[in-house]
């Protein structure tokens, strides 16, 4: 049935190629700025882990530089410029910007569809901002980032994919040429050097491009009701898992590898906006589990949308799984980032 979509992919391909060609010819003009702009993006529609990598950049830069994060706020019901506040609703600013703001309350997080306008406004309002991070900005060529970081996942690399809607690519594979750094994300815990070499060979990067490998590390769990860290293992608990992700395989594998008992997985689409009916379904599923030791488990991104329904879950064990990004050659990529910021 997928072959029915192939003609539509050809139309999408033509439009995408014309747009990129116009930027390459400088008919459509990209704007450069006299300060460091780091763009994190991908070629595919989602599921590579862009925002966790932005989170990583925030974590290493925030103590040395005044930084601002710009996102379009995917999934929000508005299109205006907003400075994200901790008490905002995800419908106003999007779940991922809100998640970052809750995690880093002192960092400037802004949403706007037009990144150029956002940069100019932030610089007027906060002239001391030294570094801009653009989340999901690889296709937003109106801004010329000084450092482009392109993320592709280990299990679904761009070189095995096709143009949307036949596949999940937003643009052709050749446009990886715009990236300075290519990060292969979500690598397995036991990935071998030979497997890494195979991926490197298939990417076939240019001499000016560097390839790094990253993985998701689960660092602990927090209570949704209190935000307190929970110092216990989930190994002996029945888990009702709630996710609204593009790809839940990584979290499922993690639970299986740690011998966690998955009672039920309530899987929603990426960036899902939870409703009261969803909460009733989650609670009913949890209550059907007759185990004494049982929990509801969700992701950080989902928690910012579920927390507004906290009253539904006051008598439950509702936990949020915390993550961070780890790089195989962490010191090398950190040095690459800091060298770029210092020189610009």
Account of the 3D structure:
The chain folds into 2 domains: 2-217 and 326-343, P-loop containing nucleotide triphosphate hydrolases (Rossmann fold), CATH 3.40.50; 219-324, Rossmann fold (3-Layer(aba) Sandwich). 32% of the residues lie in helices and 23% in strands. It has 10 helices and 13 strands. A hairpin with a 5-residue loop joins strand 8 (210-223) and strand 9 (229-230). The radius of gyration is 21 Å and the shape is globular.
Present the secondary structure layout.
Layout: H1 6-24, E1 37-41, H2 50-61, E2 67-71, E3 82-83, H3 90-93, H4 95-103, E4 108-111, H5 115-125, E5 131-135, E6 147-153, E7 181-185, H6 193-203, E8 210-223, E9 229-230, E10 238-244, H7 249-257, E11 261-268, H8 276-288, E12 294-299, H9 300-306, E13 318-327, H10 330-343
Parallel strand pairs: 1-5, 1-6, 2-4, 2-5, 6-7, 7-8, 10-11, 10-12, 12-13
Antiparallel strand pairs: 3-4, 8-9, 8-13
Helix pairs in contact: 4-9
Keywords:
single chain; 344 residues; alpha/beta; Rossmann fold; 13-stranded mixed β-sheet; 32% helix; 23% strand; globular
Provide the β-strand percentage band: 15-25%
Q: Provide mean pLDDT, rounded.
A: 94
Count of helical regions: 10
Distance between the termini: 50 Å
Please give the CATH class of the largest domain. Alpha Beta
Report the uncertain regions: none
- Superfamily at the CATH H level of the largest domain? P-loop containing nucleotide triphosphate hydrolases
Q: What does the main sheet amount to?
A: 13 strands, mixed
CATH architecture descriptor text of the largest domain: 3-Layer(aba) Sandwich
* Radius of gyration based on Cα positions: 21 Å
Helix content percent band: 25-40%
- How many beta-strand segments? 13
